[in-house]
Amino acid sequence: MSLFLPGRVVVFDYGEVISRTPHASRDLLVEATGVPADELFPVYDELRHDLDRGDLSVVDYWRAIGERTGRTWSVTDIHRFWAVDFTGWFDVEPATLAIVEELHDAGTRLALLSNAGFDFGDPYRRSPMGSLFETVVVSAEEHVLKPAPSIYRDTCARLGIEPGQMVFVDNRAENAAGAGAIGAVGHHYTSPDGLRTFLTELAEQPAPAPVP
Asked: I want to staple 108 with a disulfide (CB 3.0 to 4.6 A). Which of 16, 103, 104, 208 is the partner?
């Protein structure tokens, strides 16, 4: 059965849904920075919210990590760390991206909504993957993070749909629940197989009634 969801727009998160978890790049970051993993990644993760909200530039983000871990890094150093980290996020999960493409080819409307820094905006939009989405929403550009209700509502507004027409897929349960809280259908992604089962079952249900 074709994965065609008429009357709905399937909106995907990116990190650890379409992309794989960047385990290899994390090992390379430890090597490049010289900071042990148990010291580096708690700070990396904590400050990531500020980066993804657009409150920190990439340079300021890495300088803040350096300050918190007792290091001083030049822009040359930071660019090297950034390149390792950034490219690690573009190793995609082929089975998930194949589902995205299948939805697209069947005529289902698609969009991307990602908590990510400014540096991800153009790569999302201009990559081969980006050709499958009619709208890309990046949290840094909106200065708000999922699961804040406004980012889901603004995504719906850009798509010209009501929340009940949105199907939102995210690897974080709280983000899927955030979409559900505004009336969308949220799916907590755990695997490509689980995603396919969810979408296949949803495709068998009636399309949302048009809003008068």
From this structure: 103
Range 40-43 contact pairs with CB under 8 angstroms and sequence separation of 24 or more: 40/65, 40/69, 43/68, 43/69
- Type and span of the H or E element at 169: strand 166-170
Rg (CA), the chain: 18
Q: How confident is the model over 13-43, as pLDDT tens digits?
A: 999 999 999 999 999 999 999 999 999 999 9
pLDDT tens-digit series, residues 77-111? 999 999 999 999 999 999 999 999 999 999 999 99
Cα separation values, 173 from 10, 27, 176, 189, Å: 17, 26, 5, 8
- Which residues, at least 6 apart from 16, have a Cβ–Cβ distance to it below 8 Å? 171
Phi-psi region of 53 (alpha: psi -120 to 50; beta: other; left: phi over 0): alpha
